[in-house]
């Protein structure tokens, strides 16, 4: 069936969309995006890496940015399906009931994605759109009722932060969720906004739907402010987080440089990955020490952070430290506790560094005025900036576009998980593509301590190794 309904379903929102026969904006099902390049043993060393539409050729595996672990290796290209509208669709729009759910914590851009999913669904001709309140919990809690969504409802929600639908962690079992989808609600499309844990849940829902042979499309939109989703250029909310972090860093800088022997400490988000701390440090130009989870460090000792802080106080008169929340957890006593999503509960490394810094300078008899700033919830709850706003819009549009038969498409590409259910949408090598969920949740994406970006950060801060 051709997508003949690209005009809004009411006259309240007139649109000037061209007729299908005059429009050449469809994506061919055979279009691919270069995903990555991987190593296999070979007799000749040919090292390359993906970059935009081209490939960088490195003459040697020792060249900056090239990675070649084995003695002899070359790269094999891997591809994923390009995202975008198709000329033919599987579902009849008038028979679709679509649902949106936002899980995990808050992130800038959630409302932008919700808004654009609803608008795009209406352009397709879908009239039954609902929001599931407070994450997966909304599928089982009898006190929570689904929220009818329309363009009128979501028109201005992107002007504020947070989520119109609310968020929560954890929820009912997979079987109970699918029962709700199938029996109670009659949902045929479910759009899931969340991070690794949420996507694991979406994948389990997809598998259960396949087991029951239900014609339900489960589509993910990666939401993690930490930018720690595998294979993707970035995730929405990250640009906003880096920009908002500048306010906290600048405040710490002013406090530190306005005080005698001032030290400003800023803790930013990043449980497993230090992308926010690294990029915020680079962007600010005001950080002297950047600490991330991927790079171990000593706090005490002649090569430790505290010794270097003393050097900075003596030479510069002040210092600013940026630390990711997951950094230095080996220095703290583990809690063995987990949150509702199953994530380990971390000790507060920012407070620990603040306390140890005060204690250290008192012991050595050097005055230090230590200020600590934690802007976590201010950053999470803020409105998306312009860059993230555009990014969210494109992600949402691409999330709605695919709606083919689950089983039929599985025969065309890499199996059931490479189909248009059980997938998530994101940017890869500057293009938008569909990714099988299991591939992107295998483990968090980490900062490569040998990467050019981390070395740029080290150059910008001037910090030494703290080992």
UniProtKB/TrEMBL annotation:
SUPFAM superfamilies documented for this protein: Phosphofructokinase (SSF53784)
Purpose of the protein: Catalyzes the phosphorylation of D-fructose 6-phosphate to fructose 1,6-bisphosphate by ATP, the first committing step of glycolysis.
Domain Phosphofructokinase: start-end pairs: 98-400
Catalysed reactions, as listed in the record: beta-D-fructose 6-phosphate + ATP = beta-D-fructose 1,6-bisphosphate + ADP + H(+)
Protein keywords: Allosteric enzyme, ATP-binding, Glycolysis, Kinase, Magnesium, Metal-binding, Nucleotide-binding, Transferase
PANTHER family recorded: ATP-DEPENDENT 6-PHOSPHOFRUCTOKINASE 1
Protein's name according to its UniProt entry: Phosphofructokinase domain-containing protein
Alphabetized GO MF terms: 6-phosphofructokinase activity; ATP binding; metal ion binding
BP GO terms, sorted: fructose 6-phosphate metabolic process
Lineage, opening ranks: Eukaryota, Viridiplantae, Streptophyta, Embryophyta, Tracheophyta
One Pfam family named in its UniProt record: PFK
Cofactors demanded by this protein: Mg(2+)
Cellular component, GO annotation: cytoplasm
